[in-house]
């Protein structure tokens, strides 16, 4: 309950009072290397000068004007910049205040689209097990984490779940990576046919699964096959890049590495980089056009959408990424991070897998490397790692295996794009100390 503020909160957790690049500082002056940026939020590190200046300037000019009455320069600029950088065909942007709002908007827009083009029977969503798409009721329905879903069932959006693309756990030893990708993508077609293609509205997936699986990337070819299947059955492909987008994988949008253009993309976290709450839904022109030609109005909206301060922060984030060539840096530093993790944990008796893309990495722990069996969930290894890392002055993002006990506990690592080589060493060394302490 520590994230419900008031009365008893102080004392349960350290009080964060400042930030300095890759470090967060608490009220006692202790410095923590921020190895996860919350969960992949603080992509520029803390106290970034450009974002601070942009926010100062914006608050002097205009903080808020309701989008029911006005547009604003920062919001228009942000939309134009996102469209210019997005995969082919994306040409509209819907600005919201966070990830769940972006996913929620995507689901409602998909539903309205099919209503307007005369296919009202399309209402079902297919997503993947071990995924997370947010905590509001629609987004929760799409998510495939049983533990989060179960206490709120029946959920609002009818969703069924297929296997994730999870090479470490899914690929058979004698199967090529390509065959594995095609086989697991084939589950989507089977599920569409089982449900009846004319009833399915959208397929939702994270190109690199974040919090619930620990930076698990789709293998090459998987998303391309998914795109083909969606096209074949007239189903919208929604890629949730709330965590893996905004440069985290070394591409502004993770799906650009996969060579795939979805119908919609959701982003948040790194868009505001922690300086402002903001999210966005990016949409293919055909969806916008259908609604414009029909009712002319997307039946949705939130008070703070297109907030000028939030958009100003996001514009400054994009400028930092562009002008400092941070995407190249994410790829270089990401390779170094992967190499350092591999060197440290490659032979570790209880590390089964080290994976990810760019500065988005995951370490999966197992009781036995040969069988890949996870530790008993009651051991709560992930919580012990989090505590030991914190004590050592490292913020990382450990999570338990899924409720069905299929996966091992894992640690998600998502440092700021500005991380230096010495800080990569510090991160890996502190993580190693924390893992060994938790295991002892
Ligand atoms: N989708 C994904 C992939 C996420 O990782 C998250 C947040 N962890 C969300 C959606 C929800 O975002 P928010 O917490 O900003 O509502």
From TrEMBL:
Note the InterPro entries from the entry: Aminotrans_3, Aminotrans_3_PPA_site, PyrdxlP-dep_Trfase, PyrdxlP-dep_Trfase_major, PyrdxlP-dep_Trfase_small
Q: Which Gene3D superfamilies match?
A: Aspartate Aminotransferase, domain 1, Type I PLP-dependent aspartate aminotransferase-like (Major domain)
Q: Name one GO cellular component term.
A: cytosol
Q: Which CDD domains match?
A: OAT_like
Q: Which cofactors does the annotated protein need, by name?
A: pyridoxal 5'-phosphate
Per UniProt, the keywords (alphabetical) are:
Aminotransferase, Pyridoxal phosphate, Transferase
**What is a GO molecular function of this protein?**
transaminase activity
Q: Give the domain of life.
A: Bacteria
Q: Where is the signal peptide?
A: none
The UniProt entry, under PROSITE patterns, shows:
AA_TRANSFER_CLASS_3
Tell me which Pfam families the record gives: Aminotran_3 (PF00202)
PANTHER family from the xrefs?
Answer: AMINOTRANSFERASE, AMINOTRANSFERASE CLASS-III
Q: Member of which family?
A: Belongs to the class-III pyridoxal-phosphate-dependent aminotransferase family.
Name of the protein in its database record:
Adenosylmethionine-8-amino-7-oxononanoate aminotransferase
